[in-house]
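Thread: benzoic acid complex, take 2
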Amino acid sequence: MEEIKDQQVISMPCIGDPAPEFKAVTTQGEMNFPSDYKGDWVILFSHPADFTPVCTSEFMTFASMEEKFTKANCKLVGLSIDGLYSHIAWLRTIKEKIEYKGMKNVEVNFPLIEDIKMDVAKKYGMIQPNEDSTKAVRAVFFIDPKGIIRTIIYYPLSLGRNFDELYRVIIALQTADAFGVATPADWYPGDDLIVPPAGSCGTAKERMESEDKDMKCYDWFFCTKKMDKEKVLEKVLK
Ligand code: BEZ
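Output below.
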């Protein structure tokens, strides 16, 4: 999708698109994206700037949850319009000085991309000029093991993300793939899953008359099935 604004072309990748490719320098060395992550889920996220309070709270939270994301086959990659030395200094400050909500000595081990020229941020629609023309908004791209964008969430500068929700999204996407289902509003593992809508009158009738104890139909187009939390997590977690 492209929007012309003040002579500037803002490109926004969409859900279902291949993740735009780039090469970058990061706090963990050089990166070729998304080829370095083939076979893994990735969350690529941007933040407005180093040494800012909301971003610091976010990085401490995300880094503290990294093991959880690793167990869900998901790697984390951050980005801001700052240079490598700023990134390194900020991450050192976080580890050495910041204690926040019981988190301290927090080491950020996932890569943080330097993007001074905004090359990557522009490819991913992370610069949204009416919000700020020199800082990235808080974008979150969920990319699957084949390099396809599966979910996108954008937040403004002033709103820190809910990292439990980001974890829920990565689990829900993998659950939908693994079981050929969809996940209803506010779904968490252990809750009923949505069976794809009946595609024929015959299937609709079968569903409504089914005696399967694990299936419940609220109407012919809205059927759920039970799935144990353990069964979901066994499929999704390493
Ligand atoms: C922050 O992370 O605290 C922040 C960054 C840019 C604008 C506003 C807040």
